[in-house]
Amino acid sequence: DAAPPPTRGPAARLAASLIGSRTAAAAVVRCALAHPRPPTPPTEAAPDTGAPGVALHRYLKISTHNVRSLFAHQHDTLLNVREWAADIVVLTETKMGRRTHWVRKHLANETAASYKVFSNAKPVNHATKRRAAGVAIGIREGLCRGGSARHMPIDAASLQGHISHVRLHTPGSTPLHVVGVYMPTDSLSVRKEIYAHVNEIHREAAAAQEHMLVAGDFNAGSAAADRGSKHLSAADTAHIEWRERHGFKPAAEQPCPQHEGRAWTYSPAGDRSCFSRIDDIILSPGLQQSLRAHEGPAAFAWVSSVGGPFDPRPVHCCLPTEAVGLWDAP
Question: What's the pTM?
Answer without folding.
Answer: 0.81
